[in-house]
Amino acid sequence: MNKLDLSDYIGKIHRIMRDHNDYDMEIQYILYRKSYNQDLQFKAVCFNSDDPNEIIGITNIEGYEKYYSIPDWDYNVDTYLFEDLSNDFEILYISLNTHYGIWQFVNEAHDDIECEDGLQKYLCYCKQEGINADILSRIIPHKVDDIMDLYREENCGYQIIAETTCNEQTIVLGYKKGASSEYVTWSTNSNRKGEYLSGHYFTKYKPAMNDFKERCFDIMNKEVIKIKKKCEPQRNNNIR
């Protein structure tokens, strides 16, 4: 299975479940990574739809399928999901209910989380996929406290310390202590899938902030012009 196709993974996992006469398990998340020979490996965690304390794991590592029970007292997001993300796994799929559970866990235990790299990788995924407190609160009938303030966004070693978005266009300001140019502004988009482009580098904070403001005003001005043209009343050319 060398093609990254969610339906392929889901079909394979459901087939493994049927082989073990398990028909009540729901996939919570699927992770994947490339092995040394570039084969795709996966890990999935599933909960029983009627009994959330019944948890199973399914893996395909180096061509060997493993189907195993996970004790409910042993399972937590940090030592399973975040640890796997820290060990080069990537997220292929997470259900919205599972996102809600992860956000609740992070809100309650973020001071005790050991796999910080995994947490940051998960928050990056949420940023890219548009998973936020507003989305979850609309889908899950419970209040969801935001956790994105824990996200330490970085690019090329620069920590992103400010951002402004207008209609999916985003300008960010980055800082890297000790660099020859400690500050940089980039153009990107709200989910960062468009990468970081047109870097303007500065040695001092003040000119970097001025450039950040100018670039922010520029994207907002372009959007206003676009809206203005869209809203202008149509002229009737037949009127003399």
What is the general shape? Answer: elongated
Report the mean per-residue pLDDT as an integer: 89
Structural class of the secondary structure composition? Answer: alpha+beta
SSE order: HEEEEHEHHHEEEEEH
Number of helices: 6
Rg calculated over all Cα atoms:
23 Å
Write a structural description.
With 240 residues, the protein is an alpha+beta fold. The chain folds into two domains: 6-148, no CATH class; 153-231, no CATH class. The chain is built from six helices and ten strands, in the order αββββαβαααβββββα. It has helices spanning 6-19, 78-86, 96-109, 116-129, 133-139, 205-231; strands at residues 25-34, 40-48, 55-61, 64-70, 90-94, 154-155, 158-166, 169-175, 183-189, 197-202. The strands form two sheets. It has a five-stranded antiparallel beta sheet, with helices on both faces. Strand 1 and strand 2 form a beta hairpin. It is elongated, with a radius of gyration of 23 Å. The N and C termini lie far apart (69 Å). The relative contact order is 0.08.
Keywords:
240 residues; alpha+beta; 2 domains; five-stranded antiparallel β-sheet; elongated
Give the arrangement of secondary structure elements.
Layout: H1 6-19, E1 25-34, E2 40-48, E3 55-61, E4 64-70, H2 78-86, E5 90-94, H3 96-109, H4 116-129, H5 133-139, E6 154-155, E7 158-166, E8 169-175, E9 183-189, E10 197-202, H6 205-231
Antiparallel strand pairs: 1-2, 1-5, 2-3, 3-4, 6-7, 7-8, 8-9, 9-10
Helix pairs in contact: 2-4
